[in-house]
Amino acid sequence: MEPVRFGLVGYGFGGRYFHAPLLAAAPEVDLLGVVTTSDQRRAQVAADSPGRATFGSLEELADAGAEAVAISTPVDTHTPLTERSLSLGLAVVCDKPFALDAAAAYETVQLAAARRLPLAPYQNRRWDSDFRTVRALVADGRLGTVTRFESRFERFAPEPGPPAAGGGTLLDFGSHLVDQALVLLGPATSVYAEWRLRESGLDDDVFVALTHADGVRSHLAGSWSEGAPGLRFRVTGTEGSYVVDGPMDGQEAALVAGQSPATLGDRWGVEPPERWGRLCRGDDGEPVPTERGRWDTFYPAFASAVRGEGPVPVDPRDAVATATVLDAARRSATTGEVVAL
User: Facing residues of 339 across strands?
Assistant: First the structure.
């Protein structure tokens, strides 16, 4: 397949560490350069990847022959940048949170459909090693009938707390937590949420409870100020529970350390035995080999979609569903009510 000519919009933490290395490592992608107006970011691009081009606007990128963009910028710019990219005829991957609310997400999805352009929210956590293991155990029936799904993104960084670029913990961590719950258990029918508002005005210490259409419940938590982070996952079923109590999937740490699928090859996304989760039945527990993390498959799949050779890796309508739940959670956390969907 002829590589898809890609541009990266933004070079903050997400662009620099999550997107640029994965784009550069994908044979199906030709990374033309980075769109940024910051002199500091341009210098970082030059230091990280000597010779890589930078562009001052989406228009410059399009004029250079780009076919697609990956947008990794502050959340309040996602909708205007995505819609401007689509208007230029570019396929788009937009980082999470995909939009500030469900109405904006819906309008963007409609625009992409009208222009017949591939669009995908960057829900890379679907390919976390531990979540892939959860999905495999549920699909194989090893837990029996699932009754409760518990999932946490908890970190201890009380100062400065949630980054403003993410729009608060509910939008930032919640985008992944809710997406994983909906992928695993299907649509939600009601939402209850709690949060703590910081002096910055951003929310933190978020708890979201979902009831799914089949009656299964999800308990989701996100925090930047949890000194004793809880279990990453506890998935309870009629035949036992799967527990992950170690650190989160290691792909983020590998990227921040300067590794990538290009440098690690078949070792990319492989978790050592000491990080495996356990299948528990009362006092009895057995380690379960963790599935390989596969963030490296997202951009090759999206490039294939641009070439008309397959679907996008994440349906953009899923971003609308996630945003709908997050809107309901915001309302619930504000009013204390349980919100029906």
Answer: 191
d(CA 211, CA 338): 10
Answer for the pair 96, 71: CB distance below 8 angstroms, yes or no. no
Please give the sequence-ordered ranges of beta strands (E in DSSP) within 36-118, or none if there are none.
Answer: 53-55, 68-71, 91-95
Residue 121: closest CA among 340, 326, 273? 326
- Domains recognised in the chain with CATH numbers: 4-124+298-312 (3.40.50.720), 125-294+325-340 (3.30.360.10)
Whether the Cβ atoms of residue 66 and residue 35 lie closer than 8 Å to each other: no
Prior bond of 160 cis (ω within 30°)? yes
Identify the bridge partners of residue 326 per DSSP, sorted by sequence position: none
Digit-coded pLDDT (tens) for 130-149: 999 999 999 999 999 999 99
Return the pLDDT at 247: 86
Angstrom distance (rounded) from CA 44 to CA 48: 6
Considering the chain, what is the average pLDDT of its residues?
A: 97
Residue 245 banded pLDDT, cuts 50, 70, 90: very high
pTM of the model as a whole: 0.96
If residue 305 lies in a helix (H) or strand (E), which one and from where to where?
helix 298-306
Contact between 169 and 205 under an 8 Å Cβ cutoff? The reply is yes
Say how far apart CA 50 and CA 72 lie, in whole Å.
21
Give the neighbor-by-neighbor strand order of the sheet with 91-95.
53-55, 29-35, 4-9, 68-71, 91-95, 119-122
Q: Is the pLDDT of residue 283 over 90?
A: no
Instruction: Give the C-alpha separation, 14 to 71, whole Å.
Output: 10
